[in-house]
Amino acid sequence: MVRLFALPFLVIEVLDNHWRVAFLLLWIAGTSDAFDGFAARKLGQATRLGQYLDPIADKLLLSTLFLVLTHVGLMPRYVTVLVFSRDFGILLISTLLFATNTLRDFRPSLFGKLNTLVQIIALLAILAQRAVPGAYFPGLCLFLVRAIAWLAPLSAAQYAWIVIRRMNSAEEAAKRLSARPELVRAEDGQPVASTLSVEVPADSREKTAS
To answer: What is the pTM of this model?
Structure first.
């Protein structure tokens, strides 16, 4: 929620060239993201709502900043196009799979997490050059921007590969169940223990009968 509420003010400060305030807001948003994940794991309070809100807040924050920084000339347009193409493709695939009840668990991939981390660091570095007097590290910014350009398609490819592999695993599991209909209840397709033969000791049968 901190990231979502800070987003409009962050955009206003960037457009008004208030770089120090913009850098501070982005730093607070990034810190809240790290603290949120740490607290959820440490306290055991990970929720389904949080699993959906966390990536939504990240994507809204990063995508909006990429657009705004491209508008003011601080981010190359081809990088923003790659980032948006990757996010739009993943969103479209996830929506179709969710709507068709094919797959409902969309965990982030390793390259996806790395891509998000590099994007946050790159945005912080770009804003820091404007916010901190004397801070000038074009080599680092150029490296991070090029890394984003590579990681965006790589993370999209890894995500697609993971989804295809999980869909194939689900199909194979369904085929194995269909090959053994005695383990599946006809009305809802759920395995039942009543169809399995269980050996009952003789003394237990006598007690039951009595």
So the answer is: 0.72
